[in-house]
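Section handout 9: paired folding examples.
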Amino acid sequence: MAGTLLVPGIPFIALLLIAGSAAAWLAYVEWREFRSISRAYDMAMLAAHDGFWEWDPVTKALHVGTRLLEILGYDEDFLADTDGWLKLVHPDDRAAYNSAVAEHLKGKTVFFYCEYRVLAKDGTYRWIASRGLAVRDRHGKAYQMVGSVTDITERRTHQEEMEFLAQHDVLTGLPNRLLFSQQLHNAIVKAKERSCKLAVLFIDLDRFKNINDTLGHRAGDQLLQLVALRLKQEMPANCCLYRQGGDEFIVLINPISDANVAVDTALIFKEQITAPFLCGETDFFTSASIGISIFPEDAGDGETLLRHADTAMYEAKAAGGNAIRSHTPLMNQRVTFRMSLETRLRRALQEQQLELYFQPQVDTQTGQLVGAEALLRWHDGESQIPPDHFIPVAEECGLIVPIGDWVIEQAVAQINAWREQFGEIPPIAINLSPRQFWRPSVSQFILEKLQAAGLPSSALEVEITESVLLDAEGGSIEQLRHLRAAGITIALDDFGTGYSSLSYLQRLPIGTLKIDRSFINDLVLDDGSAGSDPLVRAIIAMAKSLSLRVVAEGVETVPQHRRLKTLGCDVLQGYLISRPLPAAEFAAKFLVHRSKVNTSLEYGPQG
């Protein structure tokens, strides 16, 4: 009976057969599913020209198709397992690759995808995009992965180029302001953690516009490249150079022990930039204005730190250039004052706080009125803002253009009113800013205003400074010629203080040369020395040889007048004759009895 119990019964055998058949069937289904996925991937990769792979996550066995080997330049499959493949993966990409595989095996991602670099046979790394799908058993455990790779080296190279261009300057190859902002922010975070200091240097090339205007923009670009190359080659280890834009560069010094380190480094940069730059047959000479801002003393954030360095740079430039300035709180006060002045100036234009004053010009020999210069004045409430305070601000912020239009309109209206009251009067001169020539219509605007008022073009004169002549081949000269052809006299103001070539004088439509007051101040000295006499004599002689009328500005004493008369100067203007006067006062003193000639020529300050 006991023996009988050890023999399986027919039902039990039947159950075993059924269970075995079910297991075999499940294994067959899983195998068929895997083969189906494999064939699908194989066919898809063949059509897509991608490389196929299959991997056993249990045994680590790896098989790759011929296309993947071709992508990497290998002749045969030598990759027996995962370890062989991982040796080819770039060290910087292995962690991301392993993480992506693990996440998919755990079922945390729908499919496996990773972009990484793999070592090719020629020793270079190629970018591939690997994608795959795990084949899982009924318990969800992965027992096989199949997938493909695509060569994306060209796309990634292009992407890296685009990313580089987004963060670097095309001309010099230096990091740009975007990358500077990111790196400065990171540097400040670390400096706070370590209680360290860092410095920002703002570098601006002096008179760079002159190179662009005289030698051309290509020469300017070459100079910028030479500056960047020289500074990079001599850059201290704790410095990084960036191009802000235009002729501006930024240096991040991180870390520094104290502010003196930043100043010493700035001195090195200044000397490097001052040394001549050789480019073919051309020698470039320039200098730099450098502003310094220190973290954390001057600012606790990157934006403010850069702004303070920029402010300090403008202080260096205002000191004449080729200088270094460290930021101080007083600089902020000046910047605040300038911003306030700009705001008030905009309001002044709208609220008609501006006014034209007129300073007479008289014949040196007879003392007869031969003209007047219209000068802009600003009454801000009870105070009067000096022109040398607000006109540079107007130039910087662009307000000089609408203000210039207002001057033209007011001058034409005043001339018209005086001609109706006193008949024909000597011409009135107005000053034009170089920025007014940046638009192509200033000459037409002047002529239209004169025509609308019914005035002859001879009723108005135009004064320009030598800075306009820097664009001698541009539109400003054509506009001056247009005015001259219409009958308007052109005067070159502040002559002798600028940088224009004397050859321009015989090519440009100039009828009058105004000697700057700085020469007249030193014309007659108490100690009997020559002073500026030889220069004034030379300027007058040159002007006469070019048939130009000569006006002396800033004449304040009788001896100055007598000497100018001897030298042959044509016209006097200055406090010896009169200070600038409001329109009504000027008319009462110089237009009512203008036919009367003062033969004594012994003028005294008027008012």
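Moving on to protein 2 of 2.
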Amino acid sequence: MTHRKSYAELRADVEKRFPKGQTAGGVSVDDIVQLKLQNSYDTHLDIARHMASVMREDMAAYDADPTLSTQSLGCWSGFHAQQMIKSVKRLRGTTKRAYVYLSGWMVAGLRNTWGHLPDQSMHEKTAVADLIREIYVSLRQADEVAMNDLFKELKTAGNDEARNAVIEKIDNFESHVVPIIADIDAGFGNEHATYLLAKELIQAGACCLQIENQVSDAKQCGHQDGKVTVPREDFIEKLRACRLAFEELGVDDGVIVARTDSLGAGLTQKVPVSQQPGDLAAEYIKWLKTEPITDQNPMQEGELALFQNGEFVKPQRLANGLFPFKEGSGRDRVIEDCIVNLTEGGADMVWIETDTPNVDEIAGMVNAVREVVPNAKLTYNNSPSFNWTLNLRKQVRDQWIEEGKIQAGDYPEGNELMKPEFDDTELGQEADARLQNFQHDISTRAGVFHNLITLPTFHLTAKSMDELSRGYFGEDKMLAYVKTVQREEIRRGISAVKHQHEVGSDLGDTFKEMVGGDRALKAGGEANTMNQFAAE
């Protein structure tokens, strides 16, 4: 909670204002104290400021101990985020080092008014800020519901010992509000458009912005082909735009994640102007795919020439005017991009999109960056675009063949390895063990501060609805709902099983009592069917 005052201190302050125990209008001190404590943040900008400090503390802890990495799941509604954080709190007893990821992919695919769209920045800019606000409304409501339950417990405490025990719970209550890493895509326009949108996201509560180095009007999902990057100077201007937005709004600890798609991006939109050897433009231009100018390959009308390494060459240009990079240059461009984004762009972390989830590949690139920026930290997308089972099984198979542990014919190549018959084999179990340890390994070996899954709630919703629908519209009928949903909610202690309470019916009853006393018409009486789910 943001309130630094304890229950006793806050109550003393309120009693000074209202020594008779209530306001002139009959509002009691008890109720004022409760509502002040339930209101965990005054504005969402306050959330951004506080959560930025939380992230900075976590980053410092990670620098001291790389096992202290952080995690998030991508959520496309406030309810998804709320249930994720409540689950984490039940599991760990704390929300520390758990964040929410806001995916531009899911905003485009699920949260815009134009229908389901691909991840190409075609959705409304306002949809991203709207989702941030919605998530924080839901997380704050989880605080309100939980705090209201504690105050109900306080009112029924039978003696001072019991009362003091509840007050201790109130004073030590940990908010469900956690940092959001918000995807601003490529900025939805030029550097000024980026700045304006960044301000909207920050005012909605975002303490961390993730921005990528693709061309904003040709943006593609990081796991699709056809990606086009911008020159480094252009991207630095957008990083500065984000920083200025944070500084203007007083979010001094705001965090910027600079994402480079260079590993899979083979094109650039323009050739920047180099002012002197070795500058940012020159280091970018050197990777362009060129061909020599000769008598057999002369300059043609409308073609461009570059002077490189003491001779003139022609950069290749596609029919659409885009310029291809040299084949196989992606890894080196990624490393250079990351270094520039950290040292000259002022980014706090980098994000590298990879083709496959390979710890050695990620570690190799990050360690090269760390030769220049020793404390470089990475946010890594544990992407659903990877076939994790197939990738890890292939990695194990290839390694074991190289080590002589197995022969090439012991396990099949390719998609055959996906078959369920390999689940319980030695290879299948080893691949699963590596999956379980994957995040630990890349955090300790490859500088990954934050592990996220971009689209898990998209896939979870699809899978869960399929599972329920197959049973409900099939042979199991009502048993399908009870067996796959409700029975599991009850046994796991998922509070949403009492859905009326989860969305604030008890909050409403409490407020009615605050203003109406005995006249309050409450929903939570004996006839409420939610009583069937009373705690054991």
